[in-house]
Here is the input.
Amino acid sequence: MNEIGYYRPKTLVEALKVLHDYASRAKVIAGGTNVLPDIQAGKVKDCVLVDVTGLDELSGIRMEGDMVYLGSLTLISDLAASRTIREQANVLWQACQVFGDPLVRNRATVGGNLVYASPAADTAVPLLIMETILVAESLGKGRREIPIGQFFRGPGKTVLAPEELITSLFFHSTRSYQGAYIKFGLRQAMATSVANCGVLLSGTAPFRTVRVGFGALAPMPLRAARTEMFLCGKIPEESVFAEAADIARSELQPISDLRGSKEYRLILADALFKQALRKALA
Amino acid sequence: MDPISKSMITIFVNDQPVQASVGASESLLDFLRQKALATEVKCGCGRGDCGTCAVLFDGRVVKSCLVLAAQANGKRVYTIRGLAGDSLMANLQDSFVQQGAIQCGFCTPGMLMAAYNLLRIKPTPTRSEIRQGISGNLCRCTGYQKIVDAIEAVAKKIVLVPDAPDSMDLPIPAPTDQEKAKAGYLLLGGG
Amino acid sequence: MSDHVIGQRVPKYDAGPKASGLLQYADDFTLPGMLYGKVFRAKVPAAMLLDVRTERAKQLPGVHAVLTAKDVPNNNLRARFGQSTDVGSQFEGLYRVLAEKEVRYHGEPIALVAAESPELAEQACQLIEVDLQPLPGVFDPAQAMEPDSRQVGEKPNNIASHFKIRQGDVDHGFAQADVIVEGTYRVPYQDHAYLEPESGLAWCDDDGTINIRVSSQVIEHFREVAEILKLPHSKVRYLGTWIGGGFGGKEDITVESYLALLAWKTRKPVKLTYTRAESLLYHSKRHPFLMEYKTGATKDGKLVALQARLISDCGAYSALSPWVLLYATVNACGPYQIPNVKVDSYAVMTNTAITSAFRGFGAPQANFAYESQMQKLAQALGLDPLEFRQRNYLQTGEAFATGWIYPRAIPLTELAQKAWSGLGSRGLAEGGRKLGRGLAVGMGSYGRLTFLHDTSRSYVKLELDGSAIIRCGVPDVGGGQGHILCQIVAQELGISLDRIKLHITDSQLTPLAGTTTATRQLMMSGNATLKAANELKKRLLIKAGQLLNVPMENLIISENRVEVGSEPKEGVSLVEVINRLSAEGEELFVEAQFNAPFTDIPASEVLRGQTHPDFTFGAYAVEVEVDEQTGQVQINKIIAAFDVGKALNPAIVEGQIEGGCVQGVGYALFEDMAIDHGVIQTPSFAEYLLPTAVDVPDITVILVESGSGVGPYGAKGIGEPPMVMIAPALMNAIEDAVGVRIADLPVTAEKIRMALARKREGER
Here is the structure.
């Protein structure tokens, strides 16, 4: 029988206790923009929905020194409207502008977007190339910091234990970087990425730091490490970009699905990567 | 610390308390239509893809099919009928009628909520920003153009109050006329 | 007579109630103690249905009925699909309520459940067991026509219908041609995707009459439902709701036969509303067509021959496929004068989703092919595409390929030029994208086939206080079908719109007005209402003339008064005239019937002579930007120019054009219904993508008013035509931008990008 329960903790301590008690039966729900469609499709069964939206302390944008802290329940629309994010994390800010649609942005949370671990998640690539640290808390393991590069494990899979809750995330300001996020969907709103690409650059003649991320082009959001190494120290010019794009393609493992073939996704990767570089440098 | 699979909740729908027993996985949309009989909230897809079920919840316009009814327990939800006394919503409703923005009308309640959401945040949007603002709402009849016209006509009546903030790190205010004035703009002209 | 209401942008009758949220759509209505219906469906596309066991489902507490084919009094209806005229077996098809002995398509209804909650109904469905013996599916219509193909249904060689056009001698024509172009075009399924899913509620009266309150474009289906139940037609009543979008998808019976059966068996109210997934997976679609075209022209740019073979996939039951095919065939040559024509068309049955009516009804399919051909010919001849088309437009007094001499205005030269010049100066594409422009023209019929002998009735009644009541059984899909009747009465009788009450869609109490399909309601019910209003007007003017001692010809009715035209101050109130008429025992109501032009039923599959009351002509010019790296298309400008005869309410007319255009943009670029071995792979709006507000630009609408329509005041129908010619206009613009032509819709970014890659390979 399909038994679904609901629990709404009032405090973080209570939430962690519930997650600990129900462990793998617990399913955290925040904005619900992924969970509700899954319920409707019959994909959520025999579980306890742990509603964390009562935990006000998990929401908000805060800056300390050059470090930006986000509560995991911060809404995408708040990120999209935030001057702090626009100035200190512009690549993330760009991604939030093209995330879902305005009404979904009013409900979807940054933590939820990461934990759902869609390979196409819009905040994943920006947070990946900003080398974000996720803070997970649980009764069993206490507080631990997970570098985002180690967080994703495959479509819908992360390193989180069932009892763990992402409570916040933080990253260094990328104010001194130039960055761009390019999303390619089959339409201009309410679209899932067929492919997306984010880049962060510092120093441009030559490049001092280069970070490149791709979404929907592998089982999980991906940093293109070899591409980054190649570009480091290079002068920005089209021939370099072309060579870098060839390397980038070799780092990707796209699949064919309803939204696009594997071959087309590789073409998109090439195009979006070059567009992102040009946009960042513009 | 037992989870609840069926529970009695109260949601304040257009300021009226509605008490009903709900299942853990029941959506706010189902609650509004079936328990609160707020049939102006439409179900076009039930999974967040069309926007017909948009309502004002927790101070934000959201798709009510993406919210659990239980998540709204004890909270306030406003539909277009509940906001009919609000001058911005009344202006939008009138403008939709006058501009021919309503064909079959099934998307209209959600479109009105999306327009309301937009103009509360961005009172004087460009046409392109209006299109962005309603991009989470499908319409199959109008081609969107007269809906954009209707929202633009209302926006042209809005005059900015000088101390309007241009960026927000704060939650968006609740939907009273006083609070809207605080958010930085006033509506000229009657409903 | 001045146009004080006609021609004005007055708000629609239903707009206020819709904006307030008070208007009750089908699913918004409930009755105490009602049950919830659910349809149990086949999960395979082709099989022998050996047994259906419902005992376990029936035993579930709260389940009131589980019905299968054997519970249906008349499960196999030889359906005429709403036609009241017998037009021969070529147009009939089998309407089977529930699967019986066989399953012909994935999702075919097998059983019906009524239970006390939707959840219980769902649970009951899970307890129904079926024994199936799978059959090899027939999925490709071209293969299905082959002699060795398995027969899907009742039609030999799977051919549900076949039509021909024969004019002149095509071999002779091609021999004269200096240039011949050939092309094979494929157009896809399209889902109506109205935002209101199919829905209704049925209940039995104490005398056994079944009432069905349903979102339907055709309340005359009460006849079919009565025949399914073997009841007298008088014992089934439709109460149509204001419809949350139709587009032809609520033209066939949707939920109402199921509702009627469940209400009749349980004697309780039953509601049935489809989920979006049910709607996307199981209701009828636009027909995919395979179209092989060969078109020839002389070097001075005159068309001399056209040969076409059209194959439509009509799915597992023929539904309206013969009609759609007929329309496509009539449209196959477009609005062009071509001396030698040979067209053969086939509707072919397969084990796939049912295809039936959809806005345009066969015309958009043919238009994509013939306008693509026109573009290719213009290129081959080195002629400007506008100029080439202009040399070939049919002229007033010339005959279509069917031989019908067209008597009315064909302002295509003006429409095309206005649309094209509306694009203004050519801009520059941004960021490495390529700019392109395209044009397409076309025609769309309005009014049903003339051999169907279509009629509509409308009733207008004056109240003693000078207000008025209209009763007309016109389903309203949101296009102002009901409202415009109010505007006509307001215009003719001088009664302000807020004093007119409109009753629509009660199949027993409102005069039957026929279907809201085929872009027919303005012409049919508009004319019927105009006729009724004019008869009342005559009575009013005669009486007012007597009261004022003025000849009635000198009187006008305006703003609730009858006035002397030359002396507006001299007059009498409508109320006074009405009360005098009433006191003298004059009838203050008129029910009028309008008959469309009638022609004979076709004697063979060769189409000859007039088939439709009239056509509406239009042109689109578009400008796009195409990203050569990704294939992405951005539409910068769309200019639409249509001859609407007369715009009775310009806001409504523009709304039809803007909406039809964007639905066509979806068809052309976005809506990609994946189907695998008969199973649709796009069950939600997250996979089946409609254009959003940011995917389309503002559309500039240019209305031309030739006054030559057969609707009231010379109006033409505009519901369907705007859907017809946007896809080839976009394709022509995309080709202009990046030099590749895609022959199968939708033109996705991936198809463009892959075609560009192949082109570059070829050039290397």
About this structure: The radius of gyration of chain C is 27 Å. Chain C touches chain B through 53 residues (CB under 8 Å).
